[in-house]
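Example record

The entry below shows one chain as it appears in the dataset: sequence first, then structure tokens.
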Amino acid sequence: MSKPIKQMLRDGEEVRVMMVGPIAHPKVIEIVGIMGGLHGLWIDQEHSAVTQREIEVLMLACRSAGLEGFVRVPPLDYTTIMRPMEAGAFGIMTAQIRNVEEVRRIVDWAKYPPVGSRGMFRGNYEAAYCASDLAEHVERCNRDRWLAIQIETTEAVDCADEIAAVDGVDSLFVGPGDLAAAFGVPGESMHPRCVTALEKVSAAAKKAGKSWGVLPTSIEHARKCRELGCQMFSLTSEIEMLRAGMTAMRQTYDELF
């Protein structure tokens, strides 16, 4: 990476990423690094049984492939938020947020004192395995770790302005699947209620001077989000790539099936 994703977003640039979850393997990351034209990827710990040990290996693969890796986590507890960063993730994205109090607690867990209450441990990549100066390590982590808050519940949409305004939050990230389901229109990410939610997220991010991202469900959906100022697009997953590859193979060799 010539420039960190956090800096790209601050500079107003667009960022392309993808998700890896159910088939999270270093080879998948290696292939994406060679072929994908992406800036980074995120490991899904919300819906996938990816362990802390596996995250460490996957972050090694990301660094080897020239990709920035971050982790989506459920907002469960302190260790859920903190450990991916110790494993080498450049940031975290928290799912299923419903109020600003949850966001403030997550920021507190993710930042070292005096900003937050994160505990000190230097026996990891993030701290150069005890080789980094402690004061510099704290300053660097509090400055450089990237924190995104998912907006995928009706409650989060309602308080998007407050969430975006929290110090320590770098980006908002829309989960259109959950959001459409929450609005009672599952699978209809371009439904007027969902588009109104996108507009609210866009306005909240702009007001707070923050970036926002999305998992686009179609090129039309991506265009709408880009029109609203979206900068980060999570374009696919390893499952979707496998499905698309199998579909293309069957189309190519249709007469053999």
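Notes for this example: The chain has one domain: 5-256. The first strand starts at residue 15 and ends at 20.
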